[in-house]
Give the backbone structure.
Amino acid sequence: MSIGVLRALASAVVISVSPLAAAPVALRGYNAAIGETSISGISSGAFMAVQFATAWSSVIKGVGVIADGPFWCAKADADDFINGYMLPVLTATGSCMTGPPSDLNTFIAKADAKAVSGDIDSLQNLSRQKIYIFHGYNDAVVAKSVTDAAADFYRHYLGDTNDGNLYYQTAIGAGHSLVVLQEPHVNGLNDCKDNDVPYIDQCGYDQAGIVLQHTYGAPNPPNRGQLTGTMMRFDQSVCTKPDDADSLSLGDAGYVFVPKDCAVARAASISLSTDANRTSTISANVSSTTPGTILGLIRTISSSSIRRPCRVRICRLIRKHVGTGGVTSITRTAMSRNRDPRSGRLKPCSMH
């Protein structure tokens, strides 16, 4: 990842600096091909990436999984709403982090059942996805047995024919982090072995570039100079109408970096990335004929799975705004509009 890209991503959360402090504007279309979408994440953001890529496998081309476990790791279902998701939370912060997770067949059976019922897309789509999984051998937050389970989950669906679609990297001495090339090292980022904020470790390894290359093929050479584009704050409420953004736990504003090439509406593919340790980031990266061009960064808080009522609502947003060239993001735990018949309260989406 180039220094210019890192600066663009970092600047997306500095909302006090113009033009990010300006009033949000409507986001126009950028000619994005939904079938070229990929999703990546770190930690709980990676759990969300696996959940999303499995549930919406028909439109996801590749998955970047940094320090996470398999689909349905926390075993959360709609019925867990009654006890406030207490058991799934304990599992998510227990065996889904420290390992070992439950028997793999449990997760496979749940995914199969959801696909048969139509709650999620056909799992046959997983066999064509390109999957990158990473575990740093100095990771002190998520155990290797957890990421091993994620790899085994994908191996089950890839089969022998497509096992080359999985790239499982365990040979880098990184801590719990997104890993960057950054030579020479820069202040504000961690040494390779660290497990600390901002969870970006300098290991001489271009992780973002490798994830994109595994999904899309060899990119153009990285831009080592100043990025040519615009960082902007956009109005997300237009994506939720007729619903209020807050009712969907969606922030009123998102943040996006639009490269110059994308601004002139050249054909593009989208890569969503989620970076989450309680607070998550969803990056909407649109590449103009190559995966190396970054579209944007949208600040959000993510859940790690999405129940069917939430997915239906999210699908409308994606197909309406991403599918026609725009961008939207799902923030916090996306709330369904259906109500519990006993309490009358909105039912929240489940966790991973």
